[in-house]
Write a structure and sequence with these properties.
Elements: H1 3-10, H2 15-39, H3 41-48, H4 52-74, H5 80-103, H6 109-138
Length: 139
């Protein structure tokens, strides 16, 4: 990813600010998704064709994870090791989502669309965060 593209997306040329903004966006999307899963696990489970207990568990996990990523984004200088953990966790989530879709889950049509869509979104967060982290290392 080019620095120009990253700067356009994050509306800054300062790599640390880019990273913090990408972490904050990840935290917001993940946290809202987690809260929705936790609060509406029954209806969302039926919509996606996934067991409501699984949706509830994922919701609680995502809400807590999103809060952790939000805390990291709030740090003036997010620790590199913690950012790398978030990147790795996001990539693992994306891979596991696709694996679950292929190997274990039998979702509805909505679930078959939603699962890869959210996996691509999470993978995109990982790419943006990794690119901003690399830009920080070069500056």
């Amino acid at each position: 990813m080019s620095a120009t593209l990253l700067a356009g997306i994050s509306r800054t040329t300062e790599p640390r600010t880019m990273l913090r903004r990408f972490l904050a966006l990840d935290a917001l999307v993940t946290g809202v998704n987690g809260l929705a899963y936790a609060v509406a696990s029954g209806p969302l489970g039926r919509l996606l064709g996934v067991d409501a207990g699984v949706v509830l568990g994922l919701g609680v996990f995502l809400a807590v994870y999103g809060a952790g990523v939000g805390y990291l984004a709030s740090r003036p200088q997010p620790p590199v090791a913690a950012v790398k953990f978030v990147i790795d966790a996001n990539l693992a989530w994306a891979v596991l989502s696709i694996a679950a879709l292929a190997l274990w889950l039998e979702p509805s049509t909505a679930g078959a669309v939603w699962i890869p869509l959210q996996a691509m979104t999470v993978a995109a967060f990982a790419v943006l965060q990794w690119s901003a982290l690399r830009a920080m290392a070069r500056s």
